[in-house]
């Protein structure tokens, strides 16, 4: 995916963009949301049944995405609400492919990878860039959320493939994916790796990282976990997400007020 001249805004986040700026807090919330989505989906599937859970979370996901698309500017609560619902619904949808239709994890992993490739190809050909800093139009935003949904489904299938099919278990899978997530940093330093490709690489990998560690905390000791339960882990991760999102929103609000105060007057 070569970068085009249109992607010259890779390093500068546009004030018109409706997606979160890439900061340390962004990656922390992203990993927490993937873990929360994994345990929340398991909790709902066991309490409501797979089909009702998919229907319920799918409906909330549509509402969350509609609110995000209708917003005039970036708002941390709306944006992360949409991300969380992508995580929960995307996990249930990916699990349904395996549980409901008997598709092997390696097959669904490959299928979601191909789907993500198609989305990226169409996005690149249409807009000339895959940089999230250029998500300033409705069409680019739709491409962005389609890619986000595909990355969550892909990460879910890949995490289950390594933990279950390959038999690595949840903790080992989390450590493997954490190492893979850090790889683009080394490639950027040594090989001048594309920042756009590095971002999407890390974005995809955060899904199995967060999900693997969340499963490790939730599953019983007999399955190699800590046995905390999906409900407790979901509540704990939700609380952490809330704290970081509120902190992010307050920080952005203070920055905006300071910017207005420093703006020249006529």
TrEMBL record:
The keyword Coiled coil does not apply. Coiled coil: none annotated. The chain crosses the membrane at residues 49-67, 79-99, 105-123, 143-161, 167-187, 199-219, 225-247. Keywords: Membrane, Transmembrane, Transmembrane helix. It holds the Pfam family DUF347. Signal peptide: none annotated. It comes from the Bacteria. The keyword Membrane applies. This is Membrane-anchored protein.
